[in-house]
Amino acid sequence: MVIAMNMLPVWIILGVVVLVIFVVIGIYNSLVQKRIRCREAWSQIDVQLKRRYDLIPNLVETVKGYAAHEKETFERVIQARNAAIAVGPGDVKGQAKAENFLTGALKQIFALSEAYPDLKANQNFMQLQEELTSTENKIAFSRQHYNDTAAIYNTARETFPNSVIAGMFNFQTRDYFEIEEPAEREAPAVKF
């Protein structure tokens, strides 16, 4: 009985250690799941951005036929598209900045249709405009989903005791995919 009494503190300490290990494993796994959800949400943005990039050359070629002397506008759109494509994977802030610039360049293309009534009536232009509008809506939805997912991950990462585990295992904060310019917060007007 004396041996059993002497072993009681050892069992208590061992039980506490095992409990702490399980808590650490649970928190770690939860953070990993949230990080994976952020990656999945970002991949949805990436899919829509790629679709947008594929539509842009067709749009530019269609408009070129009607507004051949607007070379500077076309070059700006193509440069903006290429800059957006060149952003490294996972660079959320860089991607947001490039996308903001591209959106501004696309607004100039759509503004050209006001000066060229034949372009407004062109079936191919109208179809590309509709596809681009649909893609813009999907990008907005994907961005919102990503930002919500990033907020959940960042909140979990920064609350105690998760913050201790996140620091030990180097879980990084996720940036939000945000629009920087107040004027760019307005949806582009693509109706003709």
Features:
mainly alpha; de novo design (two linked rop proteins); 0% strand
Explain this structure to me?
With 192 residues, this protein is an all-alpha fold. It has one domain: de novo design (two linked rop proteins) (Up-down Bundle), CATH 1.20.1440.20. It has helices at residues 2-64, 71-86, 92-115, 117-121, 123-158, 162-168. α1 runs antiparallel to α2, α1 packs antiparallel against α5 and α2 (71-86) runs antiparallel to α3. The radius of gyration is 26 Å and the shape is rod-shaped.
Shape: rod-shaped
Based on secondary structure, the structural category is: mainly alpha
Q: Describe the biggest sheet?
A: none
Strand content: under 5%
Element-level helix/strand string? HHHHHH
At CATH level 2, the architecture is: Up-down Bundle
CATH topology: de novo design (two linked rop proteins)
By CATH reckoning, the class would read: Mainly Alpha
Number of domains: 1
| Beginning-to-end CA distance, first to last residue | 90 Å
Number of DSSP strand runs: 0
Low-confidence stretches: none
Task: Give the SSE map.
Blueprint: H1 2-64, H2 71-86, H3 92-115, H4 117-121, H5 123-158, H6 162-168
Helix pairs in contact: 1-2, 1-5, 2-3
Quick take:
The protein has 192 residues and is mostly helical.
